[in-house]
Amino acid sequence: MTISPVTTEIIRSALIQAAEDMNTTLIRSSYTPTIYEGKDCAVALLDREHRVLGQSSGLPIFLGNLEECSRRTEAEFGPEVWEPGDVWVLNDSYIGGTHLNDCTVYAPIFVAGELVGFAASRAHWIDMGSKDPGGSMDSTTIYQEGLRMGPTRIVAGGEECRDVVRLIATNVRFPDVTLGDMRAQIACARMGVRRLGELFARYDAATIDQARQEIFAQTERLERQQVAAIPDGSYEATGHLDNDGIDLAEPLHVTVRITVDGDRMTIDLTDCADQTTGPVNCGRAQAISAARVGYKLLISPAVSLNGGSFAPLDVEVRDGSMLGAREPAACQYYYSSLGMLIDLIVKALAPAMPDRAAAASYGDSMIVQFAGDNPRTGKPFVTLEATVGGWGAWRGGDGETALINNVNGSLCDLPIEVFETLYPARVTEYRIRPDSGGAGRWRGGDGVVREYVMEADQDLSLWWERSVTPAWGLDGGRPGTAPRVVLNPGTEHAREMLKANSLRVRRGDVLRCESGGGGGYGDPAERDG
To answer: Which residue intervals define the domain Hydantoinase B/oxoprolinase in the entry (predicted)?
Structure first.
């Protein structure tokens, strides 16, 4: 029996919409602005073989990565471990690949007593009990970064495991909101269970299975066609991170080598710095995910993500490297190398795909974090915020201005009204940083200027990157301006820095943050106007 194309498309759309419904449930149910305003989360529906059925908008850095959690759980405990009504959590950096704040909550989905799939979400929990509130910019081992959980059951048969929940609550600084976000993810998983169950109630299992196989097969054919259109050969690009946050004088190299052979592509990430003392390391699963982001944005951005998306792609990672970290490597700022990696994939393939490749973006999340005691409430607080910047120009258009970096997708910075309502600081300036984009026939997008004034004594932490390798141009385009951060600018006590950990700042101090611009494309002399 051949399934109707119409039925296949209805099921495809239903799976994608189910993931979006899960994402909406998570965002609307969460307790911290990192999720309900910043949208630092992603969700997916998986089939029983841990392949993506539908993934929502969210952080692309988690592309094809959530399934590692359910797959690892099954590998560790066996397929019989799954039970209806159960929910699990995992945040181990060496399994999921990210930092400990990124907690994945996932649940098996049963229909008529048979396992048919999984509902999963990943979201940033504001604090995991690290040595500094929210996360440490100078951690040197994973043990300084907080509570680390391998596959852990937090709901059994529909009831919370009170002992496990108590363990989590007693190891974080903000237990009420942390558990609130955890329960929002549980609600998200239950929405996935509900939506997939509704689909099985509408169509029988055989029809859904046929649709699933056809969706995967269609996607794989489209992906292979796109790869086959690239000239066979080897392509390479290299860049450098500023440092690991500990040895500030030592840049860290990342080299990407790409081989295209017919309808297959291999991305080799083995030539990069060894795992570092500072927290720029990541688990191999996240390095693979970043390579998939680079592949997807350049090769097939219009093809929806599912279990057939990466069939033509192999990614090679070296264990013990910065991109394939081993215990006890620190991983708090794992994503700095990944943003660089994504831009390098585009740079490497630019000669073969000049009409699709863009110059580099400003590159990193550019984190600003405040922590301390809020005099308005008498309670401790921590806030973490990414900063937008300029994207690279491309053949035919200028780069986008004031956009979040490529690893973060739909992540948002906090609205000023929300920030000032919740935290003891004011944003006195937020504007475009003029002429920070690289010159070119098509100009790079501009970064932004964001200035804060402290309304109470508190601790400041910063993680800003890409001053050693600012956003490069392509085809004669100029690089973007590097980032700059100044504490108390224009005073005798002015201090420039890009990284800081729990630096004490006083009421009235001013922090001025200037994000980088994107690279230009083409000879600037050829620009019209």
So the answer is: 5-524
Q: Write phi, then psi, for 369 (nearest 5 degrees).
A: -130, 130
CA–CA distance, 527 with 529 (Å, rounded to integer): 6
Other CB atoms within 10 A of residue 229 CB:
12
| Of residues 354, 389, 432, the one with CA closest to residue 519 | 389
CA dihedral sign, ordered 92, 96, 100, 105: negative
C-alpha 324 chain-centroid distance: 17
C-beta separation of 432 from 448 below 8 A: yes
Q: Name the CA radius of gyration of the chain, rounded.
A: 23
Report the C-alpha gap between 53 and 306 in whole angstroms: 5
Q: What is the pLDDT of residues 64-91, one digit of tens each?
A: 689 999 999 999 999 999 999 999 999 9
Cis peptide before 133 (omega within 30 of 0): no
Retrieve residue 311's tokens. Answer: 């069939």
Strand pairing of 313-316 and 264-268? parallel
Rounded-to-integer distance, Cα 153 and Cα 102, Å: 17
Where is 24: in which H helix or E strand? helix 5-29
Separation of first and last alpha carbons in the chain: 61
**Inter-residue contact 318 to 267 (CB < 8 Å):** no
Structure tokens at 26: 């998570």
Q: In this structure, what token pair is assigned to residue 266?
A: 């291999």
Q: Of 124, 107, 120, 101, which is closest to residue 56 (Cα–Cα)? A: 120
DSSP conformation letters of 66-86: THHHHHHHHHHH-GGG--TT-
Instruction: Give the predicted TM-score (pTM) of the model.
Output: 0.97
Helix %, strand %, coil % for the chain, to 5? 30, 25, 45
Query: By the 8 A CB rule, do 313 and 265 touch?
Result: yes
> Rounded distance, CA 501 to CA 439, Å?
34
* Encoded tokens for 240: 């450098």
- Asked whether the beta carbons of 121 and 104 are under 8 A apart, the reply is yes
Closest CA to 148 of 174, 172, 176: 172
Say what the alpha-carbon torsion angle 374, 378, 382, 383 is, to the nearest 10 degrees: -50
Q: What is the pLDDT of residues 305-356, one digit of tens each?
A: 999 999 999 999 999 999 999 999 999 999 999 999 999 999 999 999 999 9
Length of the chain: 529
pLDDT at residue 463 greater than cutoff 70: yes
CA–CA gap between residue 91 and residue 377 (Å, rounded): 31
Q: Which helix (H) or strand (E) holds 110?
A: strand 102-111
How distant, in Å, are the alpha carbons of 236, 247, 299, 318 from that of 259?
9, 33, 14, 17
Measured distance CA(53)–CA(207) in Å, rounded:
14
**CA–CA dist 448, 128 (Å, integer):** 30
Taking each helix axis from N to C end, the angle separating 205-228 and 5-29, rounded to the nearest 10 degrees, works out to 90
